[in-house]
Amino acid sequence: MSRPEDVLFSPAVKAEQTRLGSRALFEGKDFGTEITDDLRQFLGVIDTFFFATASAGGQPYVQHKGGPLGFLKPIGSHTLGFADFAGNRQYITLGHLKENDRAHIFIPHFATQQRVKLWGRARVIEGDLELMERLVDPTYKARPERAIAFSIEAWDINCRQHITPRYSEAEIAPAIDKLAQRIKELEAEVERLKASSS
């Protein structure tokens, strides 16, 4: 099995790092291969990620994956799994994985300006009801068609630059509720002042 650093950085990438002066930053850096508690916690709050595959000939494709919070789940110490919901029926990702199991997962978390990148190999799993039970949230309104398991060869969390903070409705709801309550209090105060001055 390749070293995690070699999964991230091909010889051509290392040559460019050397040419542009950044190679020393990455030599000996410990890139993860195992699902840590921090990664597990991060996965628990995400509801979106991007899944990249390529055909045998190298044609890349990136697919958005969305679901309920925490739908990308650890199913082993080095493996993630997710339910593949019914979509646009192009099946580009499925076709790619039949001929090339290399894949990449890119997870932005806009509220905290974090991003996690995972390199690995993916496989499609059909007909495994026990696994689907582990992966599917029955309250989420979507039709799961299959499972995809992703074996991690390397992962990294890095650089918050250029990630514009964005917040979900659930993330901003407490602040909005607080403002709405304050508005009610102020409106009541205005009404009291009007009543006392008339």
Structural overview:
It is a single chain. With 198 residues, the chain is of the alpha+beta class. The protein has 3 domains: 1-29, no CATH class; 32-165, Electron Transport, Fmn-binding Protein, Chain A (Pnp Oxidase, Chain A); 167-198. It is built from 7 helices and 7 strands, in the order ααααββββαββαβα. The protein has helices spanning 4-8, 11-20, 23-26, 37-43, 92-99, 129-135, 169-197; strands spanning 48-54, 60-66, 73-74, 79-85, 102-109, 114-125, 144-158. It has a 7-stranded antiparallel beta sheet with strand order 2-1-5-6-7-4-3. The radius of gyration is 23 Å and the shape is extended.
Short account of what is shown:
With 198 residues, the chain is α+β, with helices and mostly antiparallel strands. The protein has helices at 4-8, 11-20, 23-26, 37-43, 92-99, 129-135, 169-197; strands at 48-54, 60-66, 73-74, 79-85, 102-109, 114-125, 144-158.
Sequence-ordered SSE layout with sheet pairings:
Blueprint: H1 4-8, H2 11-20, H3 23-26, H4 37-43, E1 48-54, E2 60-66, E3 73-74, E4 79-85, H5 92-99, E5 102-109, E6 114-125, H6 129-135, E7 144-158, H7 169-197
Antiparallel strand pairs: 1-2, 1-5, 3-4, 4-7, 5-6, 6-7
CATH superfamily label of the largest domain: Electron Transport, Fmn-binding Protein, Chain A
The oligomeric state of the chains shown is single chain
Q: What characterizes the major β-sheet?
A: 7 strands, antiparallel
If strands are numbered along the chain, what order do they take across the biggest sheet? 2-1-5-6-7-4-3
How would you classify the helix and strand content by structural class? alpha+beta
Question: How large is the count of helical segments?
Answer: 7
